[in-house]
């Protein structure tokens, strides 16, 4: 029971941490919030831009998690699904490591369509996939308790969990990106925009591999 | 690929102005008759250097007859676009097209004194992948490097309209045509844009048969050169509006949008008005209804001259037209520099109010039937032409050649390539610097200048100056 609690806490911690991690990545959009406020010359444009970016990110997360929430109904295949999902995440990480080219179609999005841009950016970078092993871990813990429940209830629980995971993740992402955007906009100035900008491409791809590998490992060991 | 953004990328024009000053200039050297190879001269601009104002290295290409003209960077401040999220390109390569051969050289200038050719794109590849020829203006934008071309397909470049193509900014592979709907656009010259506002503006010179063997007087007098500017939805790749400046406004050339991306206006220079030989600047802007407008805001009068002193081309007019061939806008959007290549004058206008420019400075150098000397006593062939402003706005550099065959028609007795510099006064004003004078190697002329770390006609900024 205690180990279960710790693993639940750890998994939710991972959801929050991944949100913060996505949030500081300029590729997930905080520079757009700075530019929106500067271009429109209104402070209010900053939270509005953050909200649109959050919406796009949330939709990308839930779009990836929901199909998995349907699948975990196949309780007998639970381990296999978790391993397959882990492999998928590892594969995405390796793909991003090998193919270091920028997703060009993002350049075709109109600069004012922030939610669409955020959705596509999250999709292109496999941001949602990074959550899948964590999410499946949470579902697995849930199922140990509720294994005797009807399939329908179980799926309902999983869908609720998917929404919660996506929501908590998006809130922490928006918090991290928002703090950077506000600090640069209100105090540090544009000079720090390029200074705080690190190339996270390799770290990001490596994170996908790592998260995927942990997912596979914990599926094997039953956590 | 760097871990941090290139230090020469700046979020706003203001930050670029505060950045360290330029240490080198790169200037085109061209052989007007194709008897020598063209090249890029690397010029030392390091303050206090022993070789300040001298050509310290040359990149000479292996081919002849390319005719270098305009060129640009592989990456600029546009990499900091908030939409990209990947600001880790290096400003390292110059993309140098041959306007006559349609060959494109990519020159690695990471170490300016060891600058060398990194890649050559043969004309056949350009023709096959784009259907365009005579590549000209280079800008770095959202989808890579954009290159405008003056010619379409076929031997004389009139098979299909000319346009812009896109090139990959890392591999320098040509990707293909930019346009999805070009509307009325059937000629090309310059283009530039406002990235956050997502519009592009392009201009028109003429088709290759109208310029390659010299200016065609009949075409000019019957107003057959370009006289329209086109406004584009940049990312949709669609011409949304064409403004005809009036057919007498022949050759609408350089497009200079305000650098601050919150502004929705810019300028365009017109070489000659065929009704009165005036040179003109148009201010273009987007009105409150989102419709583009253009209005003539500067006119420069011709100077009457005894036909005996004029080249055959101009004798019938008894006057020297100003010939506004290049313009450039300082990064603070305050001063517009206007090269009057015929008169032999460089003008400085205060364009703080873009609808009411005020002449604030003027320098006389060269000129048809004038030949003003440089303050150091040396001559200056032709007139002030390609102009480039330092990022801080304090130094203005220019060269003298317009285009090989046109130089010979307007200045049949001149020959040579020179580059000079003028200092900008605290409150405007322009004074030629007596100590800065570069004479190019014999038989070579000079054209566009690029400054190390970016200048006032390369970088596109994605954040306003605040």
Biggest beta-sheet profile of chain B: 4 strands, antiparallel
Number of helices of chain B: 5
Estimate the mean pLDDT confidence of chain A: 86
Query: Percent helix among the residues of chain A?
Result: over 70%
Rg of chain B, Cα atoms, Å: 20 Å
Q: Rg of chain A to the nearest angstrom? A: 18 Å
Q: N- to C-terminal separation of chain B? A: 29 Å
Quick tags:
heterodimer; A: 223 residues; mainly alpha; B: 466 residues; mainly beta; 4-stranded antiparallel sheet
In short:
The complex is a heterodimer of chains A (223) and B (466). Chain A has one domain.
Task: Explain what this protein looks like in three dimensions.
The complex is a heterodimer of chains A (223) and B (466). Chain A is mainly α. In chain A, 77% of the residues lie in helices and 0% in strands. Chain A has one domain. The mean pLDDT of chain A is 86. Chain B is mostly beta strands. In chain B, 6% of the residues lie in helices and 38% in strands. At the A-B interface, helix 2 and helix 8 of A face loops of B.
What is the secondary structure topology, with strand pairs?
The complex is a heterodimer of chains A (223) and B (466).
Chain A lengths: L1 H23 L5 H11 L4 H27 L6 H21 L15 H11 L7 H15 L4 H38 L2 H5 L5 H21 L2
Chain B lengths: L12 H6 L5 E7 L8 E6 L10 E6 L11 E2 L19 E5 L6 E5 L7 E6 L1 H8 L2 E9 L2 E8 L12 E4 L6 E4 L13 E4 L4 E4 L14 H5 L6 E6 L4 E7 L4 E9 L7 E9 L5 E8 L5 E9 L2 E2 L7 H4 L3 E2 L3 E6 L5 E6 L4 E6 L7 E7 L22 E3 L5 E5 L4 H7 L7 E7 L5 E10 L5 E7 L15
Antiparallel strand pairs in B: 1-2, 1-30, 2-3, 4-5, 5-6, 6-7, 8-9, 9-10, 10-11, 12-13, 13-14, 14-15, 16-17, 17-18, 18-19, 20-21, 22-23, 23-24, 24-25, 26-27, 27-28, 28-29
């Amino acid at each position: 029971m205690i180990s279960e609690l710790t693993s639940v806490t750890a998994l939710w911690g991972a959801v929050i941490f991944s949100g913060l991690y996505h949030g500081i990545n300029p590729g997930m959009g905080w520079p757009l919030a700075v530019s929106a406020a500067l271009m429109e010359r209104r402070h209010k444009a900053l939270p509005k831009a953050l909200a649109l970016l959050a919406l796009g990110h949330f939709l990308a997360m839930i779009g990836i998690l929901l199909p998995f929430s349907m699948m975990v109904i196949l309780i007998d295949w639970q381990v296999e699904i978790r391993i397959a999902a882990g492999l998928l995440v590892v594969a995405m990480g390796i793909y991003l490591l090998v193919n270091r080219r920028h997703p060009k179609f993002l350049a075709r999005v109109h600069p004012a369509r922030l939610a669409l841009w955020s959705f596509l950016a999250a999709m292109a970078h496999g941001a949602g996939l990074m959550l899948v092993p964590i999410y499946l871990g949470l579902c697995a813990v849930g199922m140990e308790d509720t294994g005797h429940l009807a399939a329908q209830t179980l799926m309902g629980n999983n869908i609720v969990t998917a929404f919660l995971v996506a929501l908590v993740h998006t809130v922490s992402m928006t918090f991290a990106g928002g703090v950077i955007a506000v600090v640069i906009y209100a105090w540090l100035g544009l000079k720090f925009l390029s200074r705080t900008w690190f190339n996270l491409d390799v770290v990001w791809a490596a994170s996908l591999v790592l998260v995927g590998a942990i997912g596979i490992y914990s599926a094997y060991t039953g956590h | 690929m760097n871990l941090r953004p290139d230090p020469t990328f700046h979020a706003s024009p203001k930050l670029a102005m505060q950045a360290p000053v330029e240490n080198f200039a790169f200037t085109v050297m061209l052989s007007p008759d194709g008897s020598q190879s063209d090249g890029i001269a690397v010029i030392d601009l390091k303050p206090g250097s022993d070789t300040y104002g001298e050509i310290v290295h040359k990149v000479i290409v292996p081919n002849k007859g390319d005719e270098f003209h305009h060129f640009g960077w592989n990456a600029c401040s546009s990499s900091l676009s908030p939409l990209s999220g990947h600001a880790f390109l290096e400003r390292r390569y110059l993309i140098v097209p041959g306007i006559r051969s349609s060959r494109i050289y990519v020159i690695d200038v990471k170490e300016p004194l060891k600058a060398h050719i990194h890649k050559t794109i043969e004309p056949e590849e350009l023709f096959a992948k784009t259907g365009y020829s005579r590549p000209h203006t280079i800008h770095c934008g959202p989808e890579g490097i954009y290159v405008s071309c003056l010619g379409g397909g076929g031997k004389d470049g009139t098979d299909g309209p000319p346009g812009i193509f896109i090139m990959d900014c890392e591999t320098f592979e040509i990707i293909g045509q930019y346009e999805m709907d070009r509307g009325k656009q059937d000629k090309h010259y310059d283009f530039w844009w406002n990235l956050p506002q997502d519009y592009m503006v392009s201009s028109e010179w003429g088709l290759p048969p109208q310029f390659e063997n010299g200016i065609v007087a009949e075409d000019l007098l019957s107003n057959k050169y370009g006289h329209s500017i086109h406004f584009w939805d940049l990312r949709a790749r669609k011409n949304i509006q064409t403004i005809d400046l009036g057919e007498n406004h022949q050759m609408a050339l350089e497009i200079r949008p305000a650098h601050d991306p919150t502004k929705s206006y810019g300028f365009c220079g017109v070489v000659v008005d065929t009704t009165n030989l005036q040179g003109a600047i148009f201010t273009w802007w987007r009105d409150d209804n989102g419709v583009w407008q253009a209005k003539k805001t500067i006119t420069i009068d011709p100077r009457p001259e005894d036909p005996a002193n004029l080249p055959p081309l101009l004798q019938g007019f008894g006057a020297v037209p100003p010939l506004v061939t290049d313009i450039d806008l300082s990064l603070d959007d305050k001063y517009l520099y206007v090269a009057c290549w015929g008169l032999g004058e460089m003008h400085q206008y205060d364009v703080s109010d873009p609808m009411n420019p005020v002449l604030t400075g003027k320098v006389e150098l060269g000129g048809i039937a004038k030949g003003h000397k440089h303050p150091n006593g040396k001559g200056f062939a032709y007139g002030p032409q390609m102009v480039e402003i330092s990022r801080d706005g304090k130094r203005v550099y220019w060269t003298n050649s317009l285009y090989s065959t046109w130089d010979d028609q307007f200045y049949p007795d001149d020959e040579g390539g020179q580059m000079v510099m003028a200092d900008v006064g605290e409150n405007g004003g322009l004074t030629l610097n007596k100590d800065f004078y570069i004479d190019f190697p014999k038989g070579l002329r000079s054209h566009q200048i690029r400054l190390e770390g970016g200048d006032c006609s390369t970088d596109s900024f994605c954040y306003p100056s605040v």
